[in-house]
């Protein structure tokens, strides 16, 4: 499975993450000693996150209200929790665009996946399942995803991950193609690929 990773340069605040297939927001809830990530239909309960870039292109997904807390894979196994920030591997995420407004969130080569049975977000083998597709957008402009909104200064695509055929396009052709297909409000390139 090929991924196109987003490289996020600047700290990107006030982001909400939505589980695409049922249109619910990621939110936090405490259970026992841990704060887990669940889904909610209520935007007011959604967790407001900040993407902080790490040197290798991964990001830390921090709680905007409590910047010392970060998304974390519990015990480096499979459950997504909000935990004290330490910057380890189990807190480093890659964001991959699968389509316009559709992203996978990847940790150590595995994808975050909403598990309907446990009602938790788990880390699982990446598949084409809708349960692994999320939208990430600026909460102050509901209609635009983070990659659309902030792309011009803060995000670029790792072109090496794209099928080689697209590398034949020159820089001159790409914007024209983009401009033709998407009008004023998109600042990134969409490719049709699997």
From TrEMBL:
Top-level taxon of the source organism: Eukaryota
Any GO MF annotation of the entry: carbohydrate binding
Region (Disordered): 174-194
CDD domains: beta-trefoil_Ricin-like
Keyword flag Kinase: no
Comp. bias intervals (Basic residues): 175-188
Keyword set, alphabetical order: Lectin
UniProt xrefs under InterPro entries: Ricin_B-like_lectins
Protein name: Ricin B lectin
Native species: Nosema bombycis (strain CQ1 / CVCC 102059) (Microsporidian parasite)
